## 1
Amino acid sequence: MPWLAVGAAIGAAVAVATGAIAAATATLEAWQRRADGAALYEGRQPLVARVSGHEQPLPALAARCANCHEGAQAIAPALTERTLAHAQPRRGGPPSRYDARALCRLLREGLDPALVLVPRAMPRYEIDERACSALWAHLQSR
């Protein structure tokens, strides 16, 4: 009988350790996704982008999100969890809010969540789901 109790205690300890490892792995993966998104936002990892109606890709330095959305001289709205994920009117359209899918559509097609077309000066990006998810994770952490 004591061996059954020891076996149960070992099983419980293994389950707790497995859970802790899974939680640590998920935390590390989330941190890495945000770091990858920050690299995209800041241009440390280049994105392929074009101005609407033009075939030639922009130079990588010109396609950085931070160029227009960051700093005192920003010409475009700040990109933060507060400005993206909360409903607010944008570009004369109805209140809308972003999620990861809506952000990816905007980046690829230039359409915001209310289906309002963003200005042509906003580049259209060739961005895959993994990179878009990473960028969204970064923006949600700001």
## 2
Amino acid sequence: MKPKKILKELEKLIEENEIDIVHGTGSFIGGYCLLNNLPVVVINKRIPVEEKATVLVKVINSKKIDYSKSKKAVKEFIDRFN
């Protein structure tokens, strides 16, 4: 599966768990935060796709989001960080 497709699947998984994703620019990579008491993942839209996916995987692992029903390629990508 191509990196962009994996990224889309990871974004879908995050959003299914009621966490918003915000893409912005600046001198940051990204991460999880609370904005007005709402969970948000902020991602720098100028970083490479693989780094964006890594940010999302870190959130999935830190929030213990169940990814067992994800596609095989997505599960394998997430498992690389465990």
## 3
Amino acid sequence: MIAYKKGSSALHFLDARIKLLWLAGFSLILVFIRIPEVALAAAIINLFLLQISEITPQTFWKEMKGLLLFAFIPVPLQLLATGSIYLGLLNSLILINLLASAFLFISTTRIRALIDALLWLRVPAQLTFSLALAFSFMPLLEDELHKARVAQAARGGSLTRPSSVLPMVIPVLHGIFLRARKLSISLDARGFNPEKTAP
């Protein structure tokens, strides 16, 4: 699951505000300057950043393979719509670059540093808290999914058939909603308000 990974690389120690501004600028360039030279240059930059981040290619592929395969959907869609495989491949490369840069940002940025960076950029406190909470729930989602897979395998269920997805999804969603409800009750009991600043 995509989440912060402890490390001592230059990317880990880089200020979260710089990384956030870089991610925003990098994404805007990719989206609005849709030429192969820019997309290829972005891919080279992402490969370089992955190398210095101390995150192994195996880890990157393990956590991103589902999203990376999804990124190739524009190829057949563009082929059907315009008959151009070139545009489909270009769109897929742009999407892969966007996903890879987001992965690097999340994997090398602590949640506390992300919150500080968002508040520095004057992002509303409620939205900042929601984003931080979403990132915090990613490892919990992975844990719930692992438990559901183990339980289904113990009952002799298949993990490869499409019909096996629903029995896994329902317990995962139940576990996440239960955790979210407990967290909500806990925050209400403590009078939590994201707008309040520490004294």
## 4
Amino acid sequence: MSKQPEKYQVFEKENEILRSAKELLAKPDMFPEQSWAKEYELLAQSYAQLLGEVKLLTSVSDRLQNKLNKANESIARKNDELTQTLEMLTKERVGKRATTIVLMLAALFFIISELIIDPQLQEGAKIFGASGLIMLKITVAIGLKPLEVLLENLLLKTAARKKM
């Protein structure tokens, strides 16, 4: 028998039984009938023991495979949850950034309106009346929301491109 590392000697007993059975089959005339019966009985006992061990190992393997499958499913679910959470956080962050930019633009429009446009519109208010001036300011204020949505979509597309 060859010297094998210890981890390969797991089936040493089974290999010895197989070698003995092959020797018996190779020279059938050299062994009396009693030897055949004894060898057959030994082979049947060894087979029964080996079959029992295989059933046990298969059962353990199946249970471990089921645990592994459940763990993989759990990991996949957690990964999906994390992906969704990351997407929500990205949308929130982009939404805040868009709102901040729009508020800064609104403040800039307000300052420009108060310093430059209002004095000129006061002159025009004589023509259109005070309600025309108020309608113009309301139109600018309402126009800020679509601007925010447009800016938010643009920032989301930019963030998505950065991910890839």
